[in-house]
Amino acid sequence: MAGKVGLVMLQFEYLNRKKFGSQAEFLEKLQPFLTSRSRTAEKVKTLLAADLA
Hints:
Elements: H1 23-37, H2 41-52
């Protein structure tokens, strides 16, 4: 499957400051899931961080 690209859509409930106090706290919770799913998790995390900034 080398060189294959796929799309993953993550759906979340409404998130506010009561659920996560900061973006960093959200990404800290998301990171274990991402690293367990793909070798490209760091790229996804970087994209998410840039998009949420």
